[in-house]
Amino acid sequence: MAPADQAGGGDAGRAARSDTGSDTGRRAPSGPAGGPPLAAIAASLQRERRRAGLSLAETARRAGIAKSTLSQLESATGNPSVETLWALSVTLDVPFAQLVDPPRPRVQVIRAGEGPTFTAERSSYVATLLASCPPHVRRDIYVVSAQPGTARESEPHMPGVIEHVVLSTGRAEVGLTEDPVELRPGDYVSYPGDEAHVFRALEPGTVAVLLSEHH
Asked: Which residue of 37, 63, 129, 137 has the smallest Cβ count within 10 Å?
């Protein structure tokens, strides 16, 4: 379920929130990675607010949050909830994931239980962002089933392809042929699909979700 599904974006989601300032202390603890990437969120909020030509006060008013809450977020403090960030993404007309996504390395690995997390205000709900979708990009999703033995070695795809893999069950080595990463259930890796890459199952019944991103 995406953050939007639980948060209830737009006017309905904003009406359900209290306009009393910071969200700190009203939700379950964040994951091991320490919760939202505050510096990335601060930079994104400042950038998108300026792009939209909105003042701090006007952005807060439209999002239905306190000006002090937005000020804290733009200074990389506070502890924003899914609802607050979703309201801001709607107000600024930017996808939720793009608003909160920190810079990504060429090859990225997120182990199970890690990654930037976002919790809800009034329910036991935690969303972990693995990867945002860039503008004007097509993504194809596959379920991969593999057994130990001969690895699936792929030649480079068309330029600009990025592959994302989340391991569901089993164990596998996945990634660039020259330096694959061992994944266990819940682990995530992304890598350039326009370079030689490999999927090697290490346990029977290995299953993964593969997302191919075409720029």
From this structure: 137
